[in-house]
Amino acid sequence: MSDTTDAAGRIISADGRPLKSSLNRALRREKLRALALIAPLLIFVLITFIAPIADMLFRSVENDIVSNTMPRTVASLRDWDSTSGEVPGAGVFESAYFDLAVAAQKKLHSQLGTRLNYELTGMSSMFRRTGRRMDDVGEVYMDQFAALDQAWESPEVWAAMIGDADWLASEKAWAKAQNPGTPPPAFEVKEGAQAALPLTAALYKDFAAYLRLNDGDSPTQEEPWPVFYAALYTDLINRPDAATAFSGADAQRLQTSAAAVTNFEAVDYKAAFVKADDGWGQVNTWATIKAFSPKYTPGYFLNAVDMQKTPQGISAQPESQQIYILLFKRTLFLSLTIMFSCIALGYPVAWLLANLPARSANLLLILVLLPFWTSLLVRTSAWKVLLQQQGVINDTLVWIGLVNDTDRLVLINNQFGTIVAMTHILLPFMILPLYSVMKTIPPSYLRAAKSLGATNWTAFWRVYFPQSVPGIGAGSILVFILSIGYYITPELVGGTTGTFISNRIAYHISSSLNWGLAAALGTILLVVVLALYWAYDRIVGIDNVKLGG
Amino acid sequence: MTFSRLSILSITATIAAAPLAVAQDMANSMTIISWGGAYQVSQTKAYFEPYQKLHPEVKIITDESSNEAVAKLRAMNEAGNITWDLVDVTAADAMRLCDEGLALEYDPDELLADAPDGTPASEDFGDLIVSDCFIPQIVYSITFGYRSDVAEWNGKEPDDICDVFDLKTFPGQRSLEKRPINNMEWALLCDGVAKEDIYDVLATNEGQDRAFAKLDTIKDSVVWWSAGADTPQLLADGEVVIGSTYNGRLFSVIVEQNQPVKMLWDAQVYDLDGWIIPTGLPADRLARVKDFVYFATDTQRLADQAAYISYGPARASSAPLVGKHADLGIDMAPHMPTDPANATNTFLQNYEWWADYRDDLDAKFQAWLAK
Amino acid sequence: MGANGTNEAFVAFDRVQKSYDGETLVVKDLNLAIAKGEFLTMLGPSGSGKTTCLMMLAGFETATNGEILLDGKPINSVPPHKRGIGMVFQNYALFPHMTVAENLSFPLEVRKIGKSDREAKVKRALEMVQMGDFGGRRPAQLSGGQQQRVALARALVFEPELVLMDEPLGALDKQLREHMQFEIKHIADSLGITVVYVTHDQTEALTMSDRVAVFEDGRIQQLAPPDQLYEAPENSFVAQFIGENNSLEGVVEQINNKVAVVRLDSGDLIDTIPVNVSQVGERTRVSIRPERVEFIKDRLSPDAHTLKAEVLEFVYMGDIFRTRLRVAGKDDFIIKSRNAPDQVRLKPGQTIEIGWMPEDCRALDA
């Protein structure tokens, strides 16, 4: 062969390109085609599997609700020493007021209360109660401003004072068009207003954005929030010359108001808060808010391992609340027990299946698959009927005379019930991989072993069993992973001692709504499964797992 | 020729215009979430079917997801796609949904019909509007049922809530709900705490320990239930001799299935069930739901529901209209938790208190159970 | 073979029958005696019962009736692992999870042979099949021929006196198969072991065996050394099954002890050796091997019967020529001639006269 080479010594293909790039081009087309073929599945898996898992991992540490809902409070709490034993000063209460007043308007305060209630009992009602009182505080100022000048009650006056001229113009056009589908134009703060009335402008901007997003309304139509008056009061006290940044009627009104505010009746925010709920007067409340103010928290993970993050640092949960470690251990123990029961019960069945003539094997296979065709609830309820104290098994035992009528066996609502019902449900997942692996082991191996002088047992144990190990591995992994995440059956037949960690996860997802804790528990479970998988790979080798020939 | 073309055109125009006009103000389908079972049947009979008779164009899709409504609504809200129009929830869940901003706050006198005598809805429902988002529908109670044929009881029958804790006189398995709510209150009540002090005592660690200690006395004889159907089944099978559940479930065991089971009307816990409208519905769907709710919560409709299930109507004005059971023809009033004969000693749950203490007490309760 | 024969034989089947379903017999009244050190092949088409016989001998199937004796002792109730018979399986059945050495060591381990002894025997056995360097490999890492050698070594390593082989070369390609045939034969001879070999490949049977038992329909059709089998088939099945065969059908016209004159269906008369015919008028199938047919007059005896033949096809096969003819109305008559320098290459369309020595022509059953 006379290979053509170029100056650099690279082999040239027939069309004059270097052979390597030709090959790459050809392969790239192949790869793209392969990618296109798997793309639907890839996208499906990304959306339905990877994304939720990533979301779960994120949720288990995410904690931005505190700093998002109470940004000013979080900032002013930075300088407060939670170990001082003193409630924070007036400045923190003032920040808390502006934060909570806005949050209450947006109905976010009770969510924050729910979140903090996970850490400190009583926060939920404290936030709900306080949120209800926030408007009263603003209204103290509102009434005084309104008494001074009626114009302060007008939404348009506020919009014109803080809003940018261009924005006002486009807002007018929007209002005229009367187009219900389109949202109003995005709010712009007037130049100078931000510097002159920083707090008021910031809150107003929040207000306009909230209206636009939630109701598709314009701030010119909606009554100003009471908290604006408190903000305006604060701004005017801090900057008596704020009016200079404005012109016309706005400047006039601000000028008069700035002169008047010094004589206004001021609100004692701290007193107002403590009046709304005693909790605000306690150091622990503030310490908890401070402890959970960072955007990310290890709190959920700590809770998931029976620890807690307190203002004083990390500590173990009180013994009366320790449950998760116990549940993790129990979940592992029960899952392993179920797995071994499945091996013990499934192996002979799979062997029979693999060695029976095709017709009887098919019938048996249908019997094995039968549980798949009945609803999970029906199957579990059937176990109840069988296992309960007045159930079929106990009745039979009493009838035979093995068990006294007064001390019938407790077979359900405990670990035994869970093991029995779940072994039954998961058995096909053990039998099927075992069967498909055993099906590929030719009977001649056993014959060979026997012809070489091995007894039946030796032939099985030394020759047949090692070859069926991949099936046991596959079945065990399937059964173990499925059982570790099961919750319906344990919930129904597990009583108090036969429930799994998944039951707690389900509870936190659907009942307590503590999704962060649920995510942390789920993450730990995922890590445990991956660790066991890794260990399995190290000990047995993952190549040694076969679902079939 | 000209005539017929014109008429076809006008007919087409009429046909096209008619549904379009409706579609613009009100959606033609509603997804309503409830609890399933006999309860949802009663709603279908008393609300859905009559409403559809009046509005044949409306399609009502039902789902039985009320027990996980809070979680699902939260998920829908996060996904920005609310597919439910009206959800039947307990009062406690309605409060949480309201707290989370997932349920619509409403004005009772604007949304709901007046009583026939002109009493405004806010007065007719009265205190039962426990949350700004909650549209009350029924009053039910969680109470105990017991088997009336237990030989070991020597002819005695429990008539006091504390008989549940009395294993000597009333031996046998009990069934209690697998959560702290109600059980803790009953335990304290039977440990000698006065009814009005219960939540103050339960707010302290000592009080909680006291409740657990009382529950410890019967812990070994308790089957814990999590589905409303469990206790009736356990009672019917003879697995337990006494157990707590919703009074409507016991009604069907006793009256409809004729089991040897009786009601224990003592210290039963009143609870409420009603509608919430999810926030964030488009205008046309919201308009339809409001129209439906106005219809389905009027005095007659609430009274009608009681013909199918033994839960008390939430309106004061409905009580006199409660009639007979739709199939059995028996008088329903004596089976209502609100009937004066049944309501001699009742207990009202403190929703606010539980909203604070649930996370904490639930953890303790689960830890206690696992021990 | 009668009861006398079985007494001296190393392996004996005595009136053995086998049925799986209770309705049909897979093995019908089998009597067979195998001498010590003999290489006996059971040859037959699939379903002829040969493998069942082997499995009964190995102990994996039980005889429905009759007795199997090993070294004079009945073994019907002896479980396979106590029979001490080595066996080589069709697909080798090497244990995939063990190395080659472990595979060989297995039968020694179960016999509780000490470690050093074991290692020595394994080494010797591997060397015998020229696989001494492969002890540490897994079966999957070996080629088919290598696996075959290991399987052979494993069947021999515990020094059985009887080795059974069930189509052991079936999976190998032709060249390797031929090579292994000689090797197995050589090893069997040098060890002096008795071998019962099952195959459906007649060349294999002929090359390797001391005697061949041709199976068909659950019976032994003929039990004879290879040359006899080929040259003197006792019935038309054997004639047809072993080697290439031309058969012509007709009726016996005259018969005496040595010669039967047969009138073919075409009307031609030929001389044959009567094998399965005894009286005039009987229908018969006449068998002639293709290489015994002559078409050059000088090479035929003067009194030989000749037949007219038309050449249909001529195939050049290297060492021989294979010519297809139309003879006595049948167009599948084959003749084979050696590719000698003076050999005639027939052309299609040509008409010739063919003939044979009467003793090469056997009148068998119809």
Give the gist of this structure.
Chain B has 371 residues and is α/β, with parallel strands linked by helices.
Fold topology:
The complex is a heterotrimer of chains A (549), B (371) and C (366).
Chain A: H1 19-59, H2 64-69, H3 71-77, H4 90-105, H5 109-117, H6 123-148, H7 155-162, H8 165-177, H9 193-196, H10 198-214, H11 227-238, H12 248-261, H13 269-276, H14 283-291, H15 299-304, E1 307-310, E2 313-316, H16 324-355, H17 358-373, H18 376-387, H19 392-400, H20 415-438, H21 443-451, H22 456-484, H23 488-493, H24 501-510, H25 515-539
Antiparallel strand pairs in A: 1-2
Chain B: H1 2-25, E1 29-33, H2 37-54, E2 59-63, H3 69-79, E3 86-90, H4 91-99, H5 108-111, H6 121-125, E4 135-147, E5 174-177, H7 183-189, H8 198-202, H9 205-216, E6 222-225, H10 230-237, E7 242-246, H11 247-256, E8 261-276, H12 283-296, H13 299-305, E9 312-313, E10 346-348, H14 351-370
Parallel strand pairs in B: 1-2, 1-3, 5-6, 5-7, 8-10
Antiparallel strand pairs in B: 3-8, 4-7, 4-8, 4-9
Chain C: H1 3-8, E1 11-18, E2 27-34, E3 39-43, H2 50-58, E4 65-70, E5 73-74, E6 85-88, H3 100-110, H4 115-128, H5 144-157, E7 162-166, H6 174-191, E8 194-199, H7 202-208, E9 211-216, E10 219-224, H8 226-231, H9 236-241, E11 246-255, E12 260-264, E13 269-274, E14 283-288, E15 306-316, E16 320-327, E17 330-338, E18 351-355, E19 361-364
Parallel strand pairs in C: 3-8, 3-9, 6-7, 7-8, 13-19
Antiparallel strand pairs in C: 1-2, 1-4, 4-5, 9-10, 11-12, 11-14, 12-13, 14-19, 15-16, 15-18, 16-17
Helix pairs in contact in C: 3-4, 3-5, 4-5
Strand order of the largest sheet of chain C: 6-7-8-3-9-10
The whole-number mean of residue pLDDT values of chain C reads 90
Number of strands of chain A: 2
Which radius of gyration of chain C do the C-alpha atoms yield? 24 Å
Poorly predicted spans of chain A: none
**What's the arrangement of strands in the largest beta sheet of chain A?**
1-2
Hey, roughly how much beta strand do the residues of chain A contain? under 5%
Q: Share of helix among residues of chain C?
A: 10-25%
Structural class based on helices, strands and sheet pairing of chain A: mainly alpha
CATH superfamily assignment of the largest domain in chain A?
MetI-like
Assign a percent range to the helix content of chain A: 55-70%
Give the SSE order of chain C as H and E letters.
HEEEHEEEHHHEHEHEEHHEEEEEEEEE
Structural class of chain C: alpha+beta
What name does CATH use for the topology of the largest domain in chain A?
A: MetI-like fold
Backbone shape of chain C: globular
